[in-house]
Design a protein that fits this description.
20 strands, alpha/beta, 4 domains, Arc Repressor Mutant, subunit A, 564 residues, 20 helices, 7-stranded mixed β-sheet, globular, 6-stranded antiparallel β-sheet
């Protein structure tokens, strides 16, 4: 019978102390390093590609819920044993783990606990629970046939009195790695982080079974992330083999799309991109994808419009401060419901019950009847409410801090408004030292899209000039029900009339009262004090969101304001 080799390396007291440490860490929701090569927690583990040996534990992403379809958190223990990039043969590993479990049960004198069903194992050559792997020894299960840098284990529904099996399994894995000639890698440090606002690729794009999906799915995924087929083409062309064929530098792409590290890692895993010493380049599959996107831009554009029209808008968390009660004129964007008599031989529609009863009561009195009898001529119906088109002017912060996902969320808000309403949309951006009209009021989707993508976040925040340009735009054009939406993640850093950019911005906000437009401001909590003052000067409603990258929150706020 195989012995528990870890007990040859540790005294019983040292082993018991180790188990108590495991129990303490997991019960407190903490991840930890076990030995030199292993990370254990209830969460997803993410190696830092730029710092070898550093592992991030994503505390807002439960491993059981994401990887094992568990409904409740903390039901699965996630164990990763890190090693040099290599193809670790999974079936020999499964067999030695089975022997370790038998030795563990013999030592504890316990009956079978179905560990083979509750232990999931994955390497670069296969994956499955231990029972499946043992039953199909010799046949690859979900084989990727590629190098990986860790052995991945999920332990389902382990009780505290079973936690002493964890170091036994890890020791067995390290021993088997050494037998296969694979060197373990030291985990230098771990960090507990909360991954926010991450734009993830679908599972098939992240390197899991990419051959089962076609180029259309890959192209659609990239289009959703980068916002348009044109952006996908521009992005992929930056990685064409041959430096002179590239039209964009990686720096320019980062300025436009923000941090690209996660996306580049996903593309490498999907076999679209090859890492290089001098530069990363497209693989043959990546070049095929580029050519496919170029040939099918119209279809992808149509798909993107469909996504924007049907975007899901769940209830979002935000704080609102309303100032419209002090406005000189209440602004409404729907006709107030009226009642009328239905036309002869027409469908009655929505009956206005109180008005109908009043009319019948009048006839009872005039005709001196003893009871109220409702006749057709008494019936009153609601006139159909007709939404009035709104002229929406977006005043967008174009400073450097808005680069990437924040700016994309604003782009998609503007496109969503144009595609789902009868509104005209104009865009004013303020950046560096001035504000400018990017596009006047339009119903043309193509013009709006190209105008939005001409915005490259950079420089300072000249808020006063941005507001002034929006006022000029409204005054110089015949607008219907103007709605101004100011979106910023900062405070003004460049003035217009004085050296005090804040006071200049408040002075410019006073000028918004002359436009008689409805104004809303959307910002973040760190600048709430200034934004409240700005909103008071502009008689605007203020919304404080957790993150301007939340497209759904922006859409929900604007939808709400258009109704009232």
């Amino acid at each position: 019978m195989t012995q528990l080799t870890i007990l040859e390396k540790l005294s019983l007291q040292e082993f018991d102390d180790l188990v108590q440490q495991i129990i303490s860490n997991l019960s407190q929701g903490q991840g930890f390093r076990l030995g030199e090569s292993t990370v254990v927690s209830h969460y997803i583990h993410k190696p830092n590609r730029s710092r070898p040996g550093e592992i991030n534990i994503l505390v807002n992403r439960d491993a059981g819920q994401e990887l094992a379809q568990e409904k409740l958190p903390s039901r699965v223990i996630h164990v990763d044993v890190f090693h040099e990039p290599a193809r670790v043969e999974i079936f020999p590993l499964a067999r030695v783990l089975e022997e370790t479990i038998k030795a563990y049960q013999t030592r504890r004198q316990t009956a079978s606990q179905d560990y083979a069903e509750r232990i999931f194992l994955e390497t670069g050559t296969g994956s499955g629970n231990l029972r499946e792997l043992l039953e199909h020894a010799g046949n690859k299960i979900s084989a990727r046939g590629r190098n990986r840098n860790h052995v991945h284990i999920l332990l389902k529904n382990f009780l505290q009195n079973e936690f002493d099996l964890i170091p036994c399994l890890v020791d067995t894995i390290e021993t088997e790695l050494a037998r296969q000639g694979v060197e373990i890698r030291k985990v230098e440090s771990i960090f507990h982080v909360e991954k926010k606002g991450r734009q993830t690729l679908p599972v098939y794009f992240m390197g899991f079974n990419p051959d089962q999906h076609n180029l259309w799915q890959l192209a659609t995924a990239l289009t959703s992330i980068l916002s348009s087929p044109e952006d996908v083409v521009e992005f992929l062309q930056a990685f064409q083999p041959g430096l002179f064929r590239r039209k964009q530098t990686i720096t320019n792409l980062r300025n436009k799309h923000g941090n690209l590290r996660e996306l580049l890692i996903a593309m490498v895993d999907a076999g679209l991109l090859k890492r290089g010493v001098v530069a990363d380049t497209l693989t043959r599959k990546g070049i095929e994808l580029l050519n496919f996107v170029i040939q099918h831009q119209r279809e992808l554009e149509s798909q993107m419009r469909k996504i924007l029209r049907s975007v899901s808008v769940p209830r979002s968390k935000y704080l609102s401060v309303r100032n419209t009660h002090v406005k000189a004129k209440d602004k409404r964007y729907t006709y107030i419901s009226k009642t009328t008599a239905p036309m002869k031989d027409s469908w009655l529609g929505s009956i206005a019950v109180p008005e109908t009863l009043v009319q019948a009561a009048k006839h009872k009195i005039l005709e001196k009847r003893s009871t109220i009898t409702i006749k057709r001529e008494d019936i009153r119906v609601h006139e159909q409410e007709v939404s009035k088109p709104v002229d929406v002017c977006l005043i967008i912060d174009g400073s450097a801090s808005m680069a990437g996902p924040k700016m994309k969320a604003v782009w998609q808000l503007a496109e969503h408004l144009l595609l789902t309403t009868r509104d005209k949309v104009a865009v004013v951006v303020f950046q560096e030292k001035r504000g400018r009209v990017v596009i006047p009021f339009t119903r043309n989707y193509t013009r709006l899209k190209h105008a939005l993508r001409s915005i490259h976040p950079k420089g300072m925040t000249p808020l006063a000039d941005g507001i002034t340009e929006a006022i000029k735009l409204i005054k110089n054009r015949h607008v219907r029900n103007p709605l101004l939406i100011l979106i910023t993640d900062g405070v003004p850093t460049f003035g217009k009339w004085t050296i005090n950019p804040r006071q200049d911005a408040l002075k410019a906000a006073d000028g918004l009262l002359e436009t008689r437009a409805k104004v809303i401001c959307i910002g973040v909590a760190s600048n709430r004090e200034f934004l409240e003052e700005l909103a008071e000067h502009a008689r605007a409603n203020l919304y404080i969101v957790d993150n301007l990258e939340d497209r759904a929150a922006l859409i929900e706020i604007v939808r709400k304001e258009r109704k009232y």
